[in-house]
Amino acid sequence: MTGTVRELAAAFSTRVVRELSKPHPALWARERVLPVAELVDGDVPLSLAFEAAHEQLASTYRCEYVYKSAVIKQAIDTEPPAHAMTGLPVFLSIADVVVAGEAASAFEIKTDLDSFSRLDLQVLSYSRCFEYVHVVTSESKAARVLDAVPEHVGVLALDEGSSTLTTVRPASGGHSRLDPVSLFRVLRQSERLAVLHRQRGYTADVPSALLYRRTAELFTSLPIDAAYQEFVTELRHRDARQRAAAAAAALPASLAAAGAGLTLSAIAWHRLGQLLQKPVAQLANTTHDWAA
What we know:
The two termini are 32 Å apart. It is built from 14 helices and six strands. It has helices spanning 2-10, 14-20, 27-37, 46-60, 64-78, 119-127, 142-148, 180-186, 189-200, 208-220, 224-237, 240-248, 256-260, 266-276; strands at residues 83-90, 93-100, 104-110, 132-138, 154-158, 165-169.
């Protein structure tokens, strides 16, 4: 059983889903998806096969992807316009999930297979950039997490019998922990310029080679409350056109976490959506092309 569910989990990787969006997905990706397709009847679309695979993972193999899915589902159900991102570099760590809505939160996932060896550094990194920081873990590890993290860090537990998250301790807000330099480094150059134009009326006035230093000086001189609100606004609106294309592709909920880590063109999102609507019988033979 473990080997089978691990094969299912591998199909949900961002690398696999990105490959499926190409005009002619590579053989290795098609082979990776085959165990998912085999879960359902041949006339069932691939999207529903992914739903069935995710349901099996949630009940028998609670890998990191199941936790990511639960975090993103809860966040979007609570605030539909929010922007969920995965794998965002933050100071000296990479956040498992970041959600930017009216507020912004960072989530670190600790499954039953994970150690806490880097947890202190991860919490420190996220606390420099996000008002709300959470650790998401299993019910059995929740008490240990509570003892391991500062009081401002929230703790969420994935229920044993479902994919529902329970709040063990809510995260505490406040801007005193935020670091302007760390905020600046998370933003893209276009986002920094947009912030400075709104806050200072600034437009680029130095050569490109000097722009990073110039914008850093201006950004870090902003009041922290203003800088952070602008930071949240930019993350909330990041990649808006791409997200609209992803929404139009109508990915199943089970692929939301994989989609949150993808950067694709509108055409690629459309191809992916078309492929997911094909009956799995058309995809079962990995020796034939899967052109969308």
